[in-house]
Prior knowledge:
The chain is of the alpha+beta class and 141 residues long. The protein has helices at 2-24, 28-44, 56-66, 78-87, 103-112, 134-140, and strands at 70-73, 95-98, 121-124, 127-130. The chain has a four-stranded mixed sheet.
Amino acid sequence: MMRAWFLPLLFTGCGSLVAAVRAVDGAVGTAVAVWLVFALLAVAHSPLVYPRPVGAVEARELAAVDGRPIVYWRAGCKYCLRLRFRLGRDARRLHWVDIWRDPAGAAAVRAVNGGAETVPTVVVAGKPYVNPDPRWVRDRL
């Protein structure tokens, strides 16, 4: 759980440090702007921007019932972030499995990627696709 928050905490800490140095130098406006940029980066790389994750077993059961794709992801992954933002509101229509929170999800990703935890891995109708184009994923919805 903690490693999902490592990068956001690092952004927050570095941004606070740089902002503090700028504020001490007298550039308060710059300090606020720098801190806001780092805070936005922290939020963008946090699990907060993703829909509520489900477990891999639950996602497979739900996908079998409703036919929606499953996305295996992890916080801090720039490709997962790109997929999430490019899908926009449609992201809620997918089942999201955080492989850092769910060992079964990590095992499922390793099984289809030759032992590597390559994400995003999207499973559509039981067939896995590694790092697919967001437009392709939207078309599958």
